[in-house]
Structures are given as structure tokens and as C-alpha cells.
# Entry
Amino acid sequence: MQKLILASSSIYRRELLERLQLPFSVESPDVDETPFADEQPEQTALRLAQMKARKVAEHHAEALVIGCDQVATLDGQQLGKPLTHDNATRQLRLMRGRSVTFHSALCLYNAATGSMQARVEPYEVCFRQLSDEQIERYLLKEQPYHCAGSAKSEGLGIALIEWMRGDDPNALIGLPLIRLITMLQNEGMPVL
# Structure
């Protein structure tokens, strides 16, 4: 069986992949995640997922490498990882009462054959009409400063959400498992 590698530093993606009960290792790719000028959000997410997979594959010539990236958008504008409390506060104030689309890109790269499967899974989230106090309490408790959109739906961030829509709820966390299972099967690595 080919070695499976998750090219990600996200503990949440690792936890999601563990659900499939396949042996895998994790390696953090070192890539510049800056969007290109005039690049659409879906293009940014897809390009970065592919870059991450290829970067890790450089050191693992026979592996299947999973690359992921997520870009959140509001009114067509990218919302990056806030990185600071002030930026997260601004993002959540901007998003309250509004719908945000999370573009979760997934790439499975077969380093042995050069075969690449890649896709973007959109997931739409409508945020509640939150008060400044609710936003502050949330940020102090969860500190989601490395999450696109300043919220973790898999944690307390679920309290910020009015509704969600999409084909795979795992896509919101950053690893669309339903699509990944199909990609793995295409490469001869069935989950069951």
C-alpha cells in the first residue's frame, strides 16, 4: 500500500482524516499563501492545495499526498486568517447576519505517477446577528485566529451560526472527506 501523507499543519484536518482509519503521516508544507492579484477565491484555494501537495511530495516520491486549503469569502472578497484579536473582531462584525462562503480545496497527488485529482467544495454559512459583547466573549474563549472566517464550527463557533449549506459538512472544517474517499478509491486505496 502506498504511503499516505497529509500536507497540513492543521490539527483539525488531521483529526478528520483519522476518522477514515487509514495509516497516514503528517508533514507541514512551507508555502506562501498570499493570493495572486485578481485571483478568484476558488482559484486561490485550489492553487494552494495543489502547491502544498506537490511541496510535500518532493520528499516522498512514492506517496499519495493530500493537500488542502480554505478561503472564506463575503461579497466576493477574500477573508483571510485574522491572526490577531483585532482582525478577528473586525471579521466577525462584518459577517454578522450575513452569509459567507467557505471554499475548501482538496488535492490528492500521486507522487509516483504524477496523477493529480483536485476540487473545490463550497460551503455556505450564515452567521447570527451577534452583539459586540457576544463576539468578544467568543474570541476570548476560543481564540480562532488561525481559522479562515475567525470561527471554528467544530467548537464553540457553532454558536455563531444561524444555518449552514453544503454537500459535505467536513468541508467547513477544511477537509472534504466525502470527496477524498472517492479520490482515494480512484488511486486504489479504498477506505472500506
About this structure: The mean pLDDT is 94.
